[in-house]
Automatic annotation (TrEMBL), chains A, B, C, D, E, F:
Listed Pfam families: Creatininase
UniProt keyword Hydrolase, yes or no: yes
Biological processes, Gene Ontology terms: riboflavin biosynthetic process
Protein name as annotated: Creatinine amidohydrolase
Organism: Microbacterium saperdae
Protein family per UniProt: Belongs to the creatininase superfamily.
Alphabetically ordered keywords of this record: Hydrolase, Metal-binding, Zinc
InterPro entries attached to this UniProt entry: Creatininase-like_sf (IPR024087), Creatininase/forma_Hydrolase (IPR003785)
Required cofactor names: Zn(2+)
Amino acid sequence: MTALSTLTTVEAASALARASVAIIPIGATEQHGPHLDLRTDIAIATELARRLDQSLGERSILCPPLAYGLSEHHLGFAGTLTLRPATLLAFLRDVCESLVANGITKVVVVNGHGGNTDATRLAAREIGRDLGCSVAHLMWGQLIGDLTPAYFEPGHRYHHACEIETSLALECDPSLVHTDALTGPAEIAPLDGFTDSPGGRVDLPQPFSRWSANGALGDPRRASPEIGKTLVDAFLDRAVAFTEQFIDDPAKEPAP
Amino acid sequence: MTALSTLTTVEAASALARASVAIIPIGATEQHGPHLDLRTDIAIATELARRLDQSLGERSILCPPLAYGLSEHHLGFAGTLTLRPATLLAFLRDVCESLVANGITKVVVVNGHGGNTDATRLAAREIGRDLGCSVAHLMWGQLIGDLTPAYFEPGHRYHHACEIETSLALECDPSLVHTDALTGPAEIAPLDGFTDSPGGRVDLPQPFSRWSANGALGDPRRASPEIGKTLVDAFLDRAVAFTEQFIDDPAKEPAP
Amino acid sequence: MTALSTLTTVEAASALARASVAIIPIGATEQHGPHLDLRTDIAIATELARRLDQSLGERSILCPPLAYGLSEHHLGFAGTLTLRPATLLAFLRDVCESLVANGITKVVVVNGHGGNTDATRLAAREIGRDLGCSVAHLMWGQLIGDLTPAYFEPGHRYHHACEIETSLALECDPSLVHTDALTGPAEIAPLDGFTDSPGGRVDLPQPFSRWSANGALGDPRRASPEIGKTLVDAFLDRAVAFTEQFIDDPAKEPAP
Amino acid sequence: MTALSTLTTVEAASALARASVAIIPIGATEQHGPHLDLRTDIAIATELARRLDQSLGERSILCPPLAYGLSEHHLGFAGTLTLRPATLLAFLRDVCESLVANGITKVVVVNGHGGNTDATRLAAREIGRDLGCSVAHLMWGQLIGDLTPAYFEPGHRYHHACEIETSLALECDPSLVHTDALTGPAEIAPLDGFTDSPGGRVDLPQPFSRWSANGALGDPRRASPEIGKTLVDAFLDRAVAFTEQFIDDPAKEPAP
Amino acid sequence: MTALSTLTTVEAASALARASVAIIPIGATEQHGPHLDLRTDIAIATELARRLDQSLGERSILCPPLAYGLSEHHLGFAGTLTLRPATLLAFLRDVCESLVANGITKVVVVNGHGGNTDATRLAAREIGRDLGCSVAHLMWGQLIGDLTPAYFEPGHRYHHACEIETSLALECDPSLVHTDALTGPAEIAPLDGFTDSPGGRVDLPQPFSRWSANGALGDPRRASPEIGKTLVDAFLDRAVAFTEQFIDDPAKEPAP
Amino acid sequence: MTALSTLTTVEAASALARASVAIIPIGATEQHGPHLDLRTDIAIATELARRLDQSLGERSILCPPLAYGLSEHHLGFAGTLTLRPATLLAFLRDVCESLVANGITKVVVVNGHGGNTDATRLAAREIGRDLGCSVAHLMWGQLIGDLTPAYFEPGHRYHHACEIETSLALECDPSLVHTDALTGPAEIAPLDGFTDSPGGRVDLPQPFSRWSANGALGDPRRASPEIGKTLVDAFLDRAVAFTEQFIDDPAKEPAP
């Protein structure tokens, strides 16, 4: 229920003894169009993780956020900083190794950046195999991926600096949104039935500038605090429910 | 149109000069329940890749398959062999580096094993950044992921040794299927709204034995050559269409 | 002058064009005795970096902090999380590689944790050799290492959770200090002329519990906001003066 | 006696319980002059491994082949694909780690490509030290290296796309040989008493184009199915005898 | 008391059974101005290590020296050879792993090159964590760093090819010093209060040519055998005293 | 003609400008039976390299030796120290990278330890591909491998601590040989037609204790200075001839 960071080691000893799960927020420092802070992904992840931790009471501890992620596809836009995949894999492994040394063998990564998904999933698998630690990955675009299409307009891409992410930002930390810089849809390349969802899906990494001229998707002007609250609440309901099950369900114990 | 393997270097020089894209089949050697060969994933990938290559004529070359993938979650079942993630990342990088040396800068990975998806996506991103080579990832479970639910029954998991994969096997190589060993649904853990699709989605790696007692999903007895043909044809239609676009679309050139 | 995190990419483009140096705060999540937060090192580094960035106006940008460092010697105390050396080396390299892509080739690492010094120095050397980027390392215990002995009492170790670091904490962020938990000197192993300074110096890594029974050094009760302000001001005066020289002195350009 | 690939996991469980040794064929995808397929090395290795496995009955299992090897010296000829050494080392280690998990601690690598020898030997040593698994390396050029000189003509190099390897190809898979493209000896650099055998031996890696203008050695026209059969039979006799001894001899158990 | 190198394995078995600590000399092959051999650092380290080993009698064994270190900042001067940091880290780890296999769990690295300090300290920490082996680092510039300033003249840098190191060379091995090439102070960049000691200290790696035009510091003409003897004796007194304490003090046992 | 180590940087600049090739001696610290020093391999390599360098006059420079090699198979005998393969690969790469920075692109590794052969060959290949540096590997057991069988007795293994290596030691440095400890043939496992030469050859790494109870092969009592001189002279004649050709032959230039 409390961020590990704000505890002394004496307090941490108690908190860790009571806790069953650790939460690690990860995100990115990357361009989010003309109207959102570079910190948007990590700010949203940090706030979602904080609320999740709060909801779980003594059953969880909250680890410090990692503000850097895998954003090589955004390097064409100023201000983007990226790790290499092996670095993020090692970071997650090292932190889980430390958590195991602290008696915690269940970890929830709350991820604010879709670009971290591949590496987090991969890290989780190897951590499970090698360290006896079970790592779950929660990304809002995925956990509430059935709810966001209600806000889609045809012909647009979503889930990066669009009205949906901007709404989440308004709910999580309104200072993320530069409302005076909100603009309508950027010039975007036409949707592609293969590399854009929905429809058939092909993975093809591309520089983000090929998807949007200004780095934003959708129509960010359509963002609202109400949408943000709706989606964040839905994320949290599910995240809490999942984590409670993760804690309690014998079938979700780390592999022997 | 021809497997690189069956060419001499003299023939390869011509084929490479004409080709715009290389196709690499990857899969796994892993348990597929009591009725499918351990080679099922790589056999399906190899056949899908062969047909794709054939459809593309001189525009493509076909590389040899990699029969080993990331299958650590199946190690509890006999016969499973797995690579570590870093090995698969390195393999894909090395082959792409070689292809670039041969003048090919567009690659399609035809992947028969969902467990390879994370690493292939990650490899593609770093290969794009470092080697000036653009790598697309095609996995049947994803490219025709909108078509397979038509065959789902409630309460089951799918896409591994189920009627769908078994049908694909019947179409791609009937010898993969031990029809005398076809059994009804295995004892499976109940579906979980979080870690099973559809619905909210959480990534949580688990030993496959927690999902199915015999290593198979669904009800493999419901497989048929007809379903296999329908799905394989759909996969190929899309794979060909995507690859043609990949070859021709200036917006899909490797990043500078 | 502004944290990169709180800029949009459009603003970042301007800020990066004007800036000559990037500042990266690094620290640790590690035990700091019974009276200081686990976040003490990164909190101090973040605040020192913020003030340094502010003093430099448009000449600098401030990168997000890294809250994890090399703290394996503190793993015996609850709440400590540690990276492995190769991970921190990779992190610094990746961020500098990104900064170079953003046009920045001079970096100041403001480090709040002495345990990160080895790796940061080593990273700086290889980054200089390979990436054409010059990395300076500022650690308060070192930059004002001539001023802190004025507060030493004989027979004690210093610079971790002692009155000096506690004073810095009071100046940087008073909420770091749990004043009700302030206690007198812990039971400590006697000073050793070889592995403790001053005097001859041998490097011998040891579990921190061998140096202090409760994880703190010195007599934290002697900490005061005044000492904190004196030391922080001295650090900043020097850090600003150094960084201005780093920016302007042709002899400090990155090696060709 | 059966390829692991063609078993179900249920069958594999039985086969593994009975088997004492696993066989892994490795080779390359590399130029073999104007008359042999790029797959020649892996095709020969796969066939030799298949026959070896068959001869051993229930005492062995056969793993899938790896069609990629270390062929950087052939990159000057079209169609060559190469791994980097660390990748092949990791591949062998991962597969052996998996085999150990399946209860197999003796492995025979049947290698069709001399260029893989260094790495396979090195991998075998570290696998022995770290994993409790004993790895033997069989390469035809070495195992029957006393028999092939009977077919040598003075002034030629051998063992790559020459009459000897071409004869092996005719025996193992005649479709490897493009008989219409068989030509006499290529222009080759004069033999060198130091870097060519027999005689004193110096290791000096060189692009293969320095040894042969067309990528082939010897005089491939002199190849015959009879020579192929003689040599393959000799290889198999010895390979079977060795492997039986490897299985039975207590002195060849994996190191403790 | 005897170099391991000059023992047979039979003798080594006895020596190792009696010894409590191993000594490893490390140094560099790097420029030392116009008057000192490139081997100066490793030659001094080897001689200091030899004397230390001799003083310890049967309590120590002496390992072979490593003549290569981290000298990338000297690459601008001819004859410098450098390792990369990861290589030195791996070297130290491998040797300690071997020593542990020989029953030795305490190691003293006698280092003649300041540029190796970062990596040796870092290696020592990870070796302690992972291998149950305790590694101490002795560098003369540090162990007798309180004695050398007595020989400093204002306005000069010291500790590389200066009168101090030249004096050590005269004591350790006079053939290191090309007395006919001894020259007065080189043209040096002015001392910098930040990156030169004493005073505030910032770490900023720079090509050595920025510090001295001829690669030497101080005024090597002021070197003398007497200074060398004084300093070497002081180093040895402390090194012996430390190592005896290292051997005997239960508080310096390797971490469990 | 002179060891780089004994030059100043000024002298090294001249020597490097005149030289065409660098020589690096590598060996091992490993058991050599009851009568030879642990340093035997590196001592022989160093002396052979010294003589080769001397014969080449100004055309060569001599680098410092590496006394550690790959000796994991000897770890069962006291005093053996071993590197891991990746460490030796990295060492050779780093030194060659440094030599290229010094203008040298041809390197001769004089190797005194057969166990280093795999890794040195592999390193040479990747260094050639990546660094534009051509690396030749000379090992006495190989370069004069046609001459040593004249001294073989049936039923024995050779080339490690046998009469041949002991003879080389007597010629290179008689202090290597503990003549009072010379004994007759150790109890050895019977020769094996597969894993012992001559005859068919299989690579099977085994603990050396399986080959010889006391760590020595052959009958070391039969060693003589005369045999040593004969073999060393032969080695040198060939090594000089090869290196001259390596220097002069355009066909042996580093690959472009």
